[in-house]
Amino acid sequence: MNLQSIIYPIISLGGLGLVFGAGLAYASQKFAVEIDPRALAIRDALPGANCGGCGLPGCDSFAKAVAEGKSPVDGCPVGGPDCAKALAEIMGVEVDERARKVAKVICNGDKEKCRDKFDYHGINDCVAASMVGGGGDKACNYSCLGFGTCVKACQFDAIEIIEGRIARIIPEKCTACGKCIEVCPKDVIDMVPYDQTVVITCNNKETGKVVRKKCEVACIACQICVKACPFDAIDFKNNLAFIDYDKCTQCFVCVEKCPTGAIEGDLEKRKKAVIDENTCVGCTICKKHCPVEAIEGELKGKHKILADKCIGCGACEAKCPKKSITMN
Amino acid sequence: MSVSSLFIILVSAILVNNFILSRFLGICPFLGVSKQVETAFGMGMAVTFVMALASIITYLAQILILEELNIQYMQTIVFILVIASLVQFVEMVIQKSSPTLYQSLGVFLPLITTNCAVLGLTLINISQEYNLIETIVHAIGAALGFTLAIVLFAAIRERLELSHVPKAFKGFPIALITASLMSLAFLGFAGLV
């Protein structure tokens, strides 16, 4: 066997590679572009989904914008607080801890509860379905159609279609990128704080008389919740109640009062106040602030919570000067 | 060798054997970077630069190394190595000199590396047994032909954006039809040389 036929190719190709490599190394020094090292570090700290949730095209441009100070460090909705913290560290600034938000389908009108307008046998897509018969096959024009346009748009597998053909968002997986809100033809997805369990799950803006015929679980604009809320956290607009999440203490009063069950809330998650008798000095401040008179006790005496009356709003906990009230 | 034969090589590379529209090489950037005349022109210039340099270097590599050592079968891999290095170099230069162009070319710039138009040109140079000057002229002709085709195409696509195209044809379908019509038109140059 001819050894040359092996050695020549190796030497020639290796030599060429070496020459070009050296040339490129020199060129990369000469034509080096100065990139902000912080931008590179930020890029590494980002989730890298390139979802565009920040409003910029891709993670690279967001990293650049943050490094230049044009975008806030907590601008990435996907990364959440952890990412914001990492970015703040790189940039050497502080973040104001913003509550994590998740998307929420504000409709409970599944096939059983919401009346059908007609049978739809078209393309399996909300946008297509919403174009037929004046807004889809459901009687309620504001409802979730449940054909999964949002499911297809979600890059994080956080949306599923449950029985009764309605979309549900899994809060643990949701990153609040806003893609589903963008594609939903019915505008029936909203952003709510992650730990908010009391949510008004109706989007219908018609009057109670009209909506009552269409759906069993709709907001019928009775305003009972508005009056019942001890904290003025419910507002009323366009025949629909809205919760101000900053004021809401998740006391579940509205959930109990709503005649149609249009306000969602897991009552089992309701907290109860507990007074630590060792530290209670009997100042009566908590008693004065309780909206439902669930605290009894005399001045200078130990106070007690009436568990069946307590709505778990936490108003007493916030006011107690001795910090002897805990919620659990 | 006379000036007229060089001229014939040039014209035939630009029009008659246009790399995109007659030889169907380099279709990827042709479709990818042809949405705006400006970026299309930038791409054309980048390809021109790479083609001209690659032709010279591959010609020298062929004569001085491959034929000398009688290892012509290494042609493809050596040429690819040359082209890849050159593309890297061009990328650095563009990134330094024109960040805007660098961004708009995007992924298609590194893709010149595997652009069959460049490799095809260098291989045709060798198979046609051109000498160095003819190689350079042919390379410039091919690159100008590439630029001409891509810029013309981009100009048409810019107008297509604004015109009423049936929904089913919007985007790539109409672009492909346009490309085929352009290719047909360039067939008219067939008898020129």
UniProtKB/TrEMBL annotation, chain A:
<dbReference type="GO" id="GO:0005886">
    <property type="term" value="C:plasma membrane"/>
</dbReference>
<dbReference type="GO" id="GO:0051539">
    <property type="term" value="F:4 iron, 4 sulfur cluster binding"/>
</dbReference>
<feature type="binding site">
    <location>
        <position position="154"/>
    </location>
    <ligand>
        <name>[4Fe-4S] cluster 3</name>
    </ligand>
</feature>
<feature type="binding site">
    <location>
        <position position="59"/>
    </location>
    <ligand>
        <name>[4Fe-4S] cluster 1</name>
    </ligand>
</feature>
<keyword id="KW-0813">Transport</keyword>
<dbReference type="InterPro" id="IPR007202">
    <property type="entry name" value="4Fe-4S_dom"/>
</dbReference>
<keyword id="KW-0677">Repeat</keyword>
<feature type="binding site">
    <location>
        <position position="54"/>
    </location>
    <ligand>
        <name>[4Fe-4S] cluster 1</name>
    </ligand>
</feature>
<feature type="domain" description="4Fe-4S ferredoxin-type">
    <location>
        <begin position="239"/>
        <end position="268"/>
    </location>
</feature>
<feature type="binding site">
    <location>
        <position position="150"/>
    </location>
    <ligand>
        <name>[4Fe-4S] cluster 2</name>
    </ligand>
</feature>
<dbReference type="InterPro" id="IPR010207">
    <property type="entry name" value="Elect_transpt_cplx_RnfB/RsxB"/>
</dbReference>
<feature type="binding site">
    <location>
        <position position="174"/>
    </location>
    <ligand>
        <name>[4Fe-4S] cluster 3</name>
    </ligand>
</feature>
<feature type="domain" description="4Fe-4S ferredoxin-type">
    <location>
        <begin position="301"/>
        <end position="328"/>
    </location>
</feature>
<dbReference type="InterPro" id="IPR017896">
    <property type="entry name" value="4Fe4S_Fe-S-bd"/>
</dbReference>
<dbReference type="Pfam" id="PF04060">
    <property type="entry name" value="FeS"/>
</dbReference>
<feature type="binding site">
    <location>
        <position position="177"/>
    </location>
    <ligand>
        <name>[4Fe-4S] cluster 3</name>
    </ligand>
</feature>
<keyword id="KW-0479">Metal-binding</keyword>
<feature type="domain" description="4Fe-4S ferredoxin-type">
    <location>
        <begin position="165"/>
        <end position="194"/>
    </location>
</feature>
<feature type="binding site">
    <location>
        <position position="144"/>
    </location>
    <ligand>
        <name>[4Fe-4S] cluster 2</name>
    </ligand>
</feature>
<comment type="function">
    <text>Part of a membrane-bound complex that couples electron transfer with translocation of ions across the membrane.</text>
</comment>
<feature type="domain" description="4Fe-4S">
    <location>
        <begin position="34"/>
        <end position="93"/>
    </location>
</feature>
<feature type="binding site">
    <location>
        <position position="51"/>
    </location>
    <ligand>
        <name>[4Fe-4S] cluster 1</name>
    </ligand>
</feature>
From TrEMBL, chain B:
<keyword id="KW-0249">Electron transport</keyword>
<comment type="similarity">
    <text>Belongs to the NqrDE/RnfAE family.</text>
</comment>
<keyword id="KW-1278">Translocase</keyword>
<keyword id="KW-0812">Transmembrane</keyword>
<dbReference type="Pfam" id="PF02508">
    <property type="entry name" value="Rnf-Nqr"/>
</dbReference>
<dbReference type="InterPro" id="IPR011293">
    <property type="entry name" value="Ion_transpt_RnfA/RsxA"/>
</dbReference>
<keyword id="KW-0472">Membrane</keyword>
<protein>
    <recommendedName>
        <fullName>Ion-translocating oxidoreductase complex subunit A</fullName>
        <ecNumber>7.-.-.-</ecNumber>
    </recommendedName>
</protein>
<comment type="subunit">
    <text>The complex is composed of six subunits: RnfA, RnfB, RnfC, RnfD, RnfE and RnfG.</text>
</comment>
<dbReference type="GO" id="GO:0012505">
    <property type="term" value="C:endomembrane system"/>
</dbReference>
<dbReference type="InterPro" id="IPR050133">
    <property type="entry name" value="NqrDE/RnfAE_oxidrdctase"/>
</dbReference>
<keyword id="KW-1133">Transmembrane helix</keyword>
<dbReference type="GO" id="GO:0022900">
    <property type="term" value="P:electron transport chain"/>
</dbReference>
<keyword id="KW-1003">Cell membrane</keyword>
<keyword id="KW-0813">Transport</keyword>
<dbReference type="GO" id="GO:0005886">
    <property type="term" value="C:plasma membrane"/>
</dbReference>
<dbReference type="InterPro" id="IPR003667">
    <property type="entry name" value="NqrDE/RnfAE"/>
</dbReference>
<comment type="function">
    <text>Part of a membrane-bound complex that couples electron transfer with translocation of ions across the membrane.</text>
</comment>
